[in-house]
Amino acid sequence: MAVVLPLYSPPALRRTPVALRRPPPRAALIEARPVPAVRSDGRGDEYAIQLVETTASSAPLSLASRDRSEDMQAEARAMSRAVNATVYSPQLLATKYGSQPLKVVLRTLEVLTALGTFGFKLFLDDRRSELDLRKRQRAAELREIFTRLGATFVKIGQGLSTRPDICPPEYLEELSQLQDALPTFPDAEAFSCIERELGLPLDSIFSSISPSPIAAASLGQVYKAQLKYSGQIVAVKVQRPGIEDAVGLDFYLLRGLGFLINKYVDFISSDVVALVDEFARRVYQELNYVQEGQNARRFRKLYADKEDILVPDIFWDYTSAKVLTMEWVDGVKLNEQEAIEKQGLSLLDLVNTGIQCSLRQLLEYGYFHADPHPGNLLATPEGKLAFLDFGMMSETPEEARSAIIGHVVHMVNRDYEAMARDYYALEFLSPDVDVSPIVPALRNFFDDALNSTVSELNFKTIVDGLGAVLYQYPFNVPAYYALILRSLTVLEGLALYADPKFKVLAASYPYFAKRLLTDPNPYLRDALIELLFKDGRFRWNRLENLLVQGRKDRDFTAKDALQPVLKLLVSPDGEELRALVVKEAVCVTEAVAFGTMIDAYNSIPDFVKTLINNGNTIAPKLSVAEQERMLELRDGVLRVWTLLRSSDNFDPSILQPILQVLQEPEARNLGERVLGGCTQRLAARLLQQVLRSPATVAASQ
Fold it and tell me: Which residues contact 227 (CB under 8 A, 6 or more apart)?
């Protein structure tokens, strides 16, 4: 467990014991609960004490229903306190700061002086051939500059700290300190903000609170406290004073710079103004702590169903636009490998948990944590991965989720034409852009990169390679994709602390395999068929590999793996697939039959083989090459069946979908077509043998 910090007790409460007190029992006759006395201006910043009878005998609702109802009411009260929270509006910022030219000029000079001086030092280092020698020194200077310039630039530095494709390692290490090693603001201002926002004296909310913050972030700082009504230990985040005005001015300036870049800088193809607006909207969302609480609740509902994921609960009665009270989580930051291992935990296991959760976020529900730096990921003593700080969230469009998985399939197949077309669905390219010139660039990069298997590729290698392609063509990288890259590079970077050979794609492949095998999405169903069939032949080795990888995902079920293709098989649009399946079924049936005959023949005594060979039997004879091909096909099919049978959740009902398929109108003649195909193949082989036998006899005479 983490060391308990000394807690500050307000004067009126210094006789209150600091020891953790249990919440009052639910069966209590009278429960005191603070509720807002909403004023005429709509802000619930005054409280009264409401006495609520909670006798078990008189409660008409179940305990769970009552808890949910109370939680919803508390959330509504918190929303009323945040009704005047500021939202990002370029028009309002232009109106506000357009009338304050002196303030704008002074801030511009401050930023240009700081960054211009730094740029001039880099120029001198380059002229003196000292760039590499002074990297560490300059990285530390840049971190200090961002810290001095305030929250907006701290946020920019935090983003750069997770981009190994942009920054050298020395800069990554220095800028990573911006995650949690930031200046604090006076505690008296923080405590005053809590009282003002919640409309209650501090000593009526907390029995104790830490005398100084236990962490400082770019937009606020965090205290450890104990709730008075329940004794529960909580984390209380308080917003920095004047932060809205500071970031508003910076975004006004950055947006103006974006217009200049869009107009005069040709080699940057992305819409810089749109990127600034997207970034600003997310920062302003972070300024509304009620929104962050709602983000945490949604994230918890979607992803905390897994036993190894922890998301802290929100205390709505003590939350407002500038104050957030949530469940305290004991844990160790994910970049502190030694401390994690001292608790008997494995960093790689925790990172893999993070990767699987991130894949669900990015590709399953599309709602993801866009700021997963080490300070926001904790390893709990129980071995769970705790997510913190839900201010910056993002969503992946549904079409893009499928396109990303399809893009991986096309990469495996080295289908560069299809990869290029994926950029339409990913919104990298507008529909009027011709992708044919992009194909050779993709081929040049991936033909070299794919000399290794896909699972051995480093994520950074792909990011760097694709980046080189993107910059040569009119790509517009969506903001959500940049956040996806950031999320995955952070996790890969954390894993590399423990294992320099760790590969994110290797850890991700089981999830991709499971989704391809079980997801009924039409795009993914087509991608699966594309992966399994080539030139009209079924690639059993690909299916075997997908099953081997998919079984590594604990949510994989063998029964579900049959559903997508089977549904397509019986659909009106499935005739092309049915033709391929009939053809492959004939080959498999023939391979199993002849394979059994070959095994039986090989098991009999030699003198019996001599009698058979000297006899006049009219039986199809196979060349050595054909025998090997059939045995290989038969063995591949049997390995796939063994994999399905050996699944943890296997039961005979896995065959039920196949029986249902055979009852569908479109599939009633499927068996007849397979049987007819087998008969034709056997007849053709017999006829070939008959026609060849006389020639063989004549030649021997």
Answer: 205, 206, 207, 233, 234, 315, 318, 325
Tens digits of per-residue pLDDT, 502-530? 777 777 878 888 888 888 888 788 888 88
Catalytically annotated residues = 371
Question: Which domains, from first to last, does the chain contain?
Answer: 87-179+245-281 (no CATH), 187-239+291-394 (1.10.510.10), 396-514 (no CATH), 549-691 (no CATH)
Query: Is 393 in a helix, a strand, or coil?
Result: strand
Distance CA 676, CA 684 (A): 12
Cα angle 296, 300, 305 (rounded to 5 degrees) comes to 170
CA distance 600 to 640: 23
Q: Which has more pLDDT, 469 or 386?
A: 386
Pairing of strands 393-395, 332-333: unpaired
What is the distance between the alpha carbons of residues 163 and 172, in angstroms, rounded to a whole number? 8
Strand 385-387 relative to strand 377-379, pairing: antiparallel
Residue 585 has pLDDT above 90, yes or no: no
| Helices and strands per DSSP (H, E), number in the chain | 27, 15
What is the predicted pLDDT for the residue at 62?
56
- Joined together, the tokens standing for residue 385 give 């991965």
DSSP string for residues in 4-63: PPP-B--GGGTTS--S--PPPPTT-SEEEEEEE---TTS----EEEEEEE--TTT--S-H
> Among 255, 258, 217, 264, which residue's Cα sits nearest to residue 236?
217
